[in-house]
Amino acid sequence: MIVVMEKGATKDQIQHMAGRVEALGLRAHLIYGTEHTVIAAIGEKREHTKESLESGAGVAEVVPILAPYKVASREVKPEPTQVVAGGLTVGAGVMGVIAGPCSVENEEQLISTARAVKAAGATALRGGAFKPRSSPYSSQGMKEDGLKLLAAAREETGLAVVTEVMSPEDVELVASYADVLQIGARNMQNYRLLEEAGRLDTPILLKRGPSATMDELLLAAEYILNEGNPNVMLCERGIRTFESHTRFTLPLASVPYLHHKTHLPVVIDPSHGTGHTYLVPDMAAASVAAGADGLIVEVHPNPEGAFSDGYQSLTFQQFEQTMARVRKVADALGVQIASQSRRVTV
Amino acid sequence: MIVVMEKGATKDQIQHMAGRVEALGLRAHLIYGTEHTVIAAIGEKREHTKESLESGAGVAEVVPILAPYKVASREVKPEPTQVVAGGLTVGAGVMGVIAGPCSVENEEQLISTARAVKAAGATALRGGAFKPRSSPYSSQGMKEDGLKLLAAAREETGLAVVTEVMSPEDVELVASYADVLQIGARNMQNYRLLEEAGRLDTPILLKRGPSATMDELLLAAEYILNEGNPNVMLCERGIRTFESHTRFTLPLASVPYLHHKTHLPVVIDPSHGTGHTYLVPDMAAASVAAGADGLIVEVHPNPEGAFSDGYQSLTFQQFEQTMARVRKVADALGVQIASQSRRVTV
Amino acid sequence: MIVVMEKGATKDQIQHMAGRVEALGLRAHLIYGTEHTVIAAIGEKREHTKESLESGAGVAEVVPILAPYKVASREVKPEPTQVVAGGLTVGAGVMGVIAGPCSVENEEQLISTARAVKAAGATALRGGAFKPRSSPYSSQGMKEDGLKLLAAAREETGLAVVTEVMSPEDVELVASYADVLQIGARNMQNYRLLEEAGRLDTPILLKRGPSATMDELLLAAEYILNEGNPNVMLCERGIRTFESHTRFTLPLASVPYLHHKTHLPVVIDPSHGTGHTYLVPDMAAASVAAGADGLIVEVHPNPEGAFSDGYQSLTFQQFEQTMARVRKVADALGVQIASQSRRVTV
Amino acid sequence: MIVVMEKGATKDQIQHMAGRVEALGLRAHLIYGTEHTVIAAIGEKREHTKESLESGAGVAEVVPILAPYKVASREVKPEPTQVVAGGLTVGAGVMGVIAGPCSVENEEQLISTARAVKAAGATALRGGAFKPRSSPYSSQGMKEDGLKLLAAAREETGLAVVTEVMSPEDVELVASYADVLQIGARNMQNYRLLEEAGRLDTPILLKRGPSATMDELLLAAEYILNEGNPNVMLCERGIRTFESHTRFTLPLASVPYLHHKTHLPVVIDPSHGTGHTYLVPDMAAASVAAGADGLIVEVHPNPEGAFSDGYQSLTFQQFEQTMARVRKVADALGVQIASQSRRVTV
Prior knowledge:
Helices cover 34% and strands 19% of the residues of chain A. Chain A has 346 residues and is of the alpha/beta class.
């Protein structure tokens, strides 16, 4: 922690702050610059340190040196984490492809999609049974009936099931059907939910909030890891910016950045990240080239008739073409797409 | 709803989309422009209409004409809503001032703050007992013990109590102590929590998420209103932008914009909205001039020693000076600050 | 300058960087933390220092301590700068109000507006003769003919003339007619133009670019100051964010922030800052309460028929009402609106 | 153009607006919805139409149907444009790779870089002779001496020369040395410069401003095209968002989006787009997979000692490795990197 004093800070203010640093159990090291005095606070970081120093009289700025997350950090665990969930393997050189409809709508829709995405090379099936919707007037999903259809689709295809959980009290229920629990972007800082998810060892797909910083995303992961669940996949699904020609702005530099900072695998969602079907195939291929450990893609038998997200869903044929492009890039770069899923039963 | 067809859309595609509009129970009205054909979909809006049409072949864009929220809308209720919660009155020409520490830390801290902010003109006391924290290693608050201290401070000062609730299962508990439940920015789209809050009639202070659009904020309010709780105050607390010299960017134009669109009162949080103590007084005064119905301000007996948010908290003296400035502007513009609180007991 | 080394930085890398710091004429001061080594680089800052150190092997981050601007800084000149330009006075407790049409269209339009805004209390007339337009198919302005009309309006009303200059080669021409040269948001980093403007002593109204940081704005001012022109007014006109219900997001915290960092006066443009007529009056009043030294507002005799920006222009009557609200706030806060303009001729 | 009237718009207001639409030479077509009346304005779009209608009494919104740009549009010219400039070919299935230092510093630096990037497969040399710098205290470049060194490097290597022009008066000079004129992000809306560049037929590399919308970028291109120069390459170099772990946010979805809207080729700048050397290789590969027609990459013999941008420059070896990765993706996707440059002399 570096405490930068204001240009006009008095000797008393400097002494006072040095005292506060020491009172926090840190060692204060003063550096007298040409214009500013700087206090280096040496020692292990404690809770509230930064906030507590920041409001001191005469303080211009407090610069943290250590990252705020620990268990998620690559400094702590240099080798990449590989998450395995049923037929899905993600990370450490193996790429997983999760595909399926935004919402589970009915058996026919789900089973036909599961078959189609498996045939095209997906290794997991996505599908929302509990749906967070911006409007109270939109359908909130099929709930447990949807989970049952997902499990049935897994039974038939061997695809792992990835589905969202929205509330702490649903965690147990959803985990009893799913191979991977998705925590959505709106819930990235729903700490109760994170803690509940941390008490299981079911793998978690944690989506970045649309205005979350990288530190916030990694701290959200830390909530889960800290409770004891090591199986966390991070998902970049686009951020909110001034751009309106896409639904969100998809920053693929998140992939190499996160690989630099954390051992957790990184999955990209080009469907939400762009919001338009016609942009998905190129961004899926680009994600692989950026080093992504996984993809999650919306696919629907008839996007025009979808309950939700039809405008960003691929048809079966479009998904097949996307996978062909994805596979070319993966092969060229020596990335394995783990398509040989084992048969799994709950 | 206006469906704009692509320039090259075929006659078949246009006919198909017109058919889809009719199938949704709307009337399709075709307009042949110089370059584009446009289909006006006339009738009451239904769920999924926009999404469903957007993915149609040959469709360039779907432009909604009606706002997605209803009960929150000024079209539905032209006169402004006034929310009364114990000693706090907000809206319809009366301004409420909510002040207090970020976190409830102990009795002495809370009671002294309550007395000081009341003396300076505040009408409600804020203080967090359940604290959402970005890091799992930060203190999560005093929980029910904090609520008890808040109730005791109300007992002594008559100030209304405003405090955050983070999870649906805590709603009942928090409501048994508080006059106003705050739903924080991170939980603006925690729909279970919104629904639970909607089942009470305790007033709700709903904070805008840092990347929420105005429509999303009003739809979140709609979740509460739709369950039957009419006492919703909207709170602008700053949005996330590229600016880093302030913690968030505080867009005061939200005040007249929201007044134009909704009958719900609008409260400004200049503490989170700027993130720096020295910016709070001017932004508090500016909020009043912009027409805000309320203020929520962080005040602490000793910001340097605060558990959280010290860098954006005012001392008692700074709050007194801020209130003096706020009162000048309010008086000049004929806005009443309801400082004469009634004595309230739970 | 603080050079933070990576956790795993080798002794050699640390020695190498310390050597580089010394080679730049700075003193290197090493601090060995629990996990990271930090090098404080002491001495006057030089060009390229940060950039040059940042790319060193083993360097995690370089944190500058000194602001990059100098002459604009309040550390260098603590007392506020007051800019006087004909009938317009801005800064140091005096507020100036600049009003008029977006584009100069014809004599009748301009003179009637000049009379109306003067009657309502404006102290300067704005009007574009050279217009930067996003599209090559939009009208580019009346050019010198427009300047002549502005000068004629000043002749009659005594209002100072504020008008935009877009290109270095026009600076002399525009300055021969105008009291204040406006440098628009799109040209904030047109360095040739800034330098040319710096060679005059005609006051400059420098608008913030919609994605410029505060440091970039102050460095742009520094280009002008550095050439010898001390008469710079900074103008906040809104930034580009994800918000689309306003044309730009107007961050009024810029006012107290800039007052803290610089002695230059700060003018707010609530017309561009919101992009909607109905939001302008409240934001104008809020600007004054936030401490703004001036306002620049678009006013048009018939906004519906305006060549440009009609949707954000006030009618004469709306401007009069806005000024009434502005004056109430200014009076309450002891801010003088210098409406008694002297008669000025070129 | 669709004019949406407010819910409460009076019959008179509707008639008045319909009249205004007709007065603009358009045909007004009224649609009476359940709650809103909508006026479709049919005919070719004219200047000021949207702005002019937007300020009408009773108007809620004006929705443009036609894109504001014409010549740049794919509707006007469906086949992709290929730009050829000396040894550089960009577009229509051929990818160009532009590499070199941020600033031209001296002969040795430039020649060694030119040789190295050519050996690694680049087809053009970049290097700034005129440098736009945020601070007046930073070096502004070698100017014409730098241009001479660039021309000498071309003489020896056959690489095309890409260099920035900052001001209209320098266009002729720079064009006498360069194969491609770069217009930087800060100058994207410097209309005089765009017009001047449009009077040549030297290819232009037009960089997107960090807060420019896609429409604004295409309108800036339109300024050049409209003057008669058809050789425009668009360059995405990152936008300004709340993200601070990268210097800018690089939205690769710009590539397929622009390919959908315009026939002009799209070049990606992963150096400015990320701001960190270690992120460049993956983002370069991802750009190719996203369909980019070209790359522009900063390379320096000794990034630590670079005058500028060292922290985002690649060493020769890093560039070679990047090109190996880029080539794998290009080969896999059937994209040709035109590395066989012809010998060119000025």
